[in-house]
Amino acid sequence: MEVSKSSIQKAVANNIISEQQGIALYNFFQEENQHTPSFTFTHILYYLGGLIAIGAMTLFMNLGWEQFGGAGIVFISMLYAGVGLKLANSFARKHLIIPAGICATFVVCLTPIAIYGAQQWLGLWPDDNTVFRQFHHRIKWLWLYMELGTLVTGLIVAWRYKYPFLIMPIAVTLWYISMDAVMLIIDHEDLWNSYTWQFRALVSMYFGALMTLLAFWVDIRARNTADYAFWLYLFGVLAFWGGLTSQDSDSELSKFIYFCINLAMIGAGALLVRRVFVIFGALGCCLYLGHLASTVFEDSWLFPVALSAIGLGVVYSGIWWQKNEARITKSAQAILPKALQELLANKA
Questions:
Q1: Cα(283)–Cα(96) distance, rounded to whole angstroms?
Q2: Where exactly are the transmembrane stretches of this chain (predicted)?
């Protein structure tokens, strides 16, 4: 729970703590949270600058770099990486954790372009029209070498520097692998037929589920340190929900199960205090209710009335939960493993 200055001032006004204690407490929280990402102007500048630099070497890469040839691309990438590591070490010595993490992440994000250059230099890149600028918007098995190299580099750098933002390129790379690896075993000539699409959706769903479980394991392991699981949860849930939603079935039972899975995601998000579960779960529920309104009960005047009643029932269940939350939570957590109890306690 975030404690604001106004909350401390209210505590002082109600004589819960003295004014001097309020000032000391506020200064303590400010010092504790200066290295935690937050919506402040300083942190906005940090991440804006970092994302511009990372985007320049990834999403916004143009064909101009092809003029340097493979060796030139490798050399420039190594030069950039050296500068990034030097800045990361310099910021780390000054205890500027967020800028240090952004610079270390920048180094990891240089890995795909460096491997691309090395493949060109060694004559291992195929003679077709595929160039690096397509890396982030074309699904191809050719990218797997770059992705595996990025994964290894990301793990090494994350092990060395231990900044949470370093998990971002690792999570993105895992997501990319889940899409590109499928291209090794499907027919490239017919990517969009129903069978191929269903297969790709299934791979995405199962890979996303495994990635989400990995995030949960990381969350438990790092429960007393920083939030290393955020990016893994984000892209794991994205891959899982995207694959789940892309499934095609004419069965109303299957659609209802889809709705129940999304409700379970909302519950998991509330339990783990992870908004990504709630956002995608709510989207899924809205899609199902939209299906009911437009297809199943298209001409029924009673459906909106019943849906309104259900909505009010959910509101009243929230009131009941608020009254009994402490007792139910205490009883439920008592049967959980100790590590999970500690994780939930830290989220409270």
A1: 38
A2: 44-65, 71-89, 96-122, 142-159, 166-186, 198-218, 225-244, 256-273, 278-297, 303-321
Tell me the C-alpha to C-alpha distance, in Å, between residue 232 and each of 49, 173, 207, 213.
23, 10, 12, 9
- Written as one letter, the residue type at 216 is F
Max mean pLDDT among 16-30, 82-96, 178-192 falls in 82-96
Task: Give the largest Cα separation in the chain, rounded.
Answer: 75
The dihedral through the CA atoms of 216, 217, 220, 223 has a sign that is: negative
Find where tokens 């990517």 sit: 191
Which residues of the chain form beta strands (DSSP E)? none
Sign of CA dihedral 203, 280, 237, 314: negative
Look up the pTM and report it.
0.87
> What's the chain's length in residues?
348
Cα–Cα distance measured from residue 219 to residue 273, given in angstroms and rounded to the nearest whole number: 11
pLDDT at 291 exceeding the cut of 80: yes
Q: Are 266 and 281 in contact (CB under 8 A)?
A: yes
Axis crossing angle, helix 252-272 with helix 230-245, rounded to the nearest 10: 170
Instruction: Specify the pLDDT at position 138.
Output: 85
Compute the distance between CA of residue 37 and CA of residue 117 in angstroms, rounded to an integer.
Answer: 34
C-alpha distance from residue 63 to each of 66, 180, 192 (Å): 5, 22, 29
Please give the C-alpha separations between residue 17 and each of 21, 26, 78, 275, in angstroms, as whole numbers: 6, 12, 55, 33
Residue whose entry in the numeric block shows the structure tokens 């500690």: 342
SS3 label, residue 137: coil
Output the CA angle 313-316-318, nearest 5 degrees. Answer: 115
Q: What are the phi and psi torsion angles at 226 (to 5°)?
A: -100, 175
Q: Where are the domains of the chain?
A: 34-184, 186-312
Q: In this structure, are residues 239 and 176 in contact, taking their beta carbons and an 8 Å threshold?
A: no
Is residue 179 a contact partner of residue 170, using CB atoms and an 8 Å limit?
A: no
Q: CA-CA distance, 244 to 207, in Å (whole number)?
A: 11
Within 10 angstroms of residue 67's Cβ, the number of other Cβ atoms is 8
